Amino acid sequence: MSSHTPSTAWALQHPQKSLILLFLAWKLILMLIAQTSPSPGYDTSTTILFARDELQYNNLGVLNSYGYGLSTKLVRWDAIYFTQIANRGALFEQEWAFGWGFTKCLHHSGRLLSGAHVDELSMAVAGIITANFTHLLSVLLLYQMSILVADRPLSARSSCVAFISASLHVLSPAGLVLSAPYAESPFSLLNFAGCYLYAASLKAHHQSRTSLRDIFVLVSGLTFGLATTFRSNGLLSGLVYIVQIIESVINMIHERQLGRSSVHLRQFSFVVVAGSIMAVTSFYPQYLAYQEYCIGTDSSPPWCSNRVPSIYAWVQSRYWYSSLLFSTFTGDREADSDRNVGLFHYWTLSNVPLLLLAAPMLIILSISALWCLPFSNFTGKANSKGPESSDTAEERSWMSPLGARIAGHLAVPQIVLALLAVTTYHVQIVNRISSGYPLWYWWLASKIMSKTPMEIAGWDVPVKAVVGWLIPYELIQAGLFAAFLPPA
Fold it and tell me: How far is it, in rounded angstroms, from Cα 292 to Cα 309?
């Protein structure tokens, strides 16, 4: 600790308190920017949405007036859908594309907050409170998850990386979105919780605590499933179960002659059940939509007769976009005629600025995932050997061998997310949906600690340049978001 300044030493000795103070200071800065942005902004949808509630809330005192004022700055873009759906339910089929779990969460928290008086504004205030509270919890959870994968005994380096990782989540490129009635903050909390439980199950397995391992992996499946009801990209987290299934099958083959295959068979079985729990939880909203639109109606929409009757797939292909793979899987016969269907549909000249805007985050997601993929060696053995340079070895020295294996598993969903973002998604959203994936925070924190540059296409990019991009981007994004301007 002697090499640290007094303020740094205090922060590392009191990490939770320091993270909470950093969180509050950063939120205050973003809120001040939002409050001073021009009103009503480029679009007047928010003003129209809250018009009937303005007088009533202004007459209820300073706190409610502040809630109204803050809501008019933070209810932007998708948040308008979220607050409307939370208040009156999904009336139109395209509204089923907006996280069912999040709108239900807003509905119940809004009713709890406002009592008998329920409207879009009370839902918006509940959404702002929920977003900020879950963001803070996810910051603290990321710190604990970093400690879980750290080497033992816990070194000063490991503590620093854990603290920096959590601090980077405070400064996530999602920016003001993590304070608005968006699904990103609660999704981050649920996805981090699923990752934590999954990592804890692997640690319990490594310690031969079989029953505890089984409980952790089952609950992780439920948690990941709940996360997908907030954001559909949560489905990618299920890839960690596929990795573990492959490991279990390989281990069963290798140890069959030793008479110990039953241990891995049990692990295999519980992982399959966990994946099934995740799948059932994820598709529950689709089942509800099928019941509403396809059962007991005189005329049902076309998607009811698809191979997989998913309203989400139908809405994406009909109103936004759809990948060719998605359309083929669901059997959506009409999707192929839509103008936005297919890989690279977003790769147009007019979208080049958005591709450039997303490029830094896409590079970070990709490089950090490739940094850890070699440690997912599909043998189930916790070891530290692998094809790594001396710089890489120094960067991941804070992790335990088992922690490196866990990171290797978590790299799979992240690299797939980056691939889908650049080929299929509206690419600029990667700056906000990346907030719920822990691996890149660990990688960047390790780079900051080791002071090694990033190698991009043969160029050495100082890690300070990443932080130098991150903070100004968030400050500018806060002003633009509050003024109802892109990127969103």
Answer: 12
CA dihedral of residues 297, 106, 79, 181 (deg, nearest 10): -160
Tens-place pLDDT, residues 267-282: 899 999 999 999 999 9
Q: Which residues contact 376 (CB under 8 A, 6 or more apart)?
A: 243, 405, 408, 409, 411, 412
Q: Per-residue pLDDT for 4 more than 50?
A: yes
Residue 253 contacts residue 234 (beta carbons within 8 Å): no
| C-alpha–C-alpha distance, residues 134 and 187, integer Å | 9
DSSP state of 461: E
- Cis amide leading into 487 (omega within 30): yes
Three-state secondary structure along 107-141? Answer: HHHHHHHHCCCCCHHHHHHHHHHHHHHHHHHHHHH
Rounded Cα distance between 186 and 175, Å, is 14
Q: Rounded to an integer, what distance in angstroms lies between the CA atom of residue 485 and that of residue 488?
A: 8
Among 20-24, 150-154, 178-182, 204-208, the minimum mean pLDDT is found in: 150-154
d(CA 32, CA 213): 46
| Residues listed for the chain | 488
Report which secondary-structure segment, H or E, holds 479.
helix 463-482
Rounded-to-integer distance, Cα 481 and Cα 488, Å: 7
CA distance 310 to 304: 8
Q: Which residues contact 262 (CB under 8 A, 6 or more apart)?
A: none
CA 376 to chain centre: 21
Inter-residue long-range contacts of 264-267, CB under 8 Å, 24+ positions, other chains counted? 264/380, 266/210, 266/214, 267/205, 267/213
> Residue 40: is the preceding peptide bond cis (ω within 30°)?
yes
Verify cis geometry, omega within 30 degrees of 0, for the bond prior to 486. Answer: no
For the segment 445-463, the average pLDDT, to the nearest whole number, is: 83
- The torsion region of residue 351 among left (phi > 0), alpha (psi -120 to 50) and beta comes to alpha
Phi/psi at 95 (nearest 5 deg)? -75, -10
H and E: helices and strands count for the chain: 20, 2
Bridge partners of residue 341, in order along the sequence: 322
The CA distance from 391 to 389, in Å, is 5
Tokens of 82: 């979220």
- ∠ CA 208-213-215, rounded to 5°: 150
Residue 176, number of CB atoms within 10 A of its CB? 26
Crossing angle between the packed helical segments 463-482 and 352-372, to the nearest 10 degrees? 140
Q: If DSSP codes are grouped into helix, strand and coil, which group holds residue 459?
A: strand
Cα–Cα distance, 293 to 88 (Å, whole number): 17
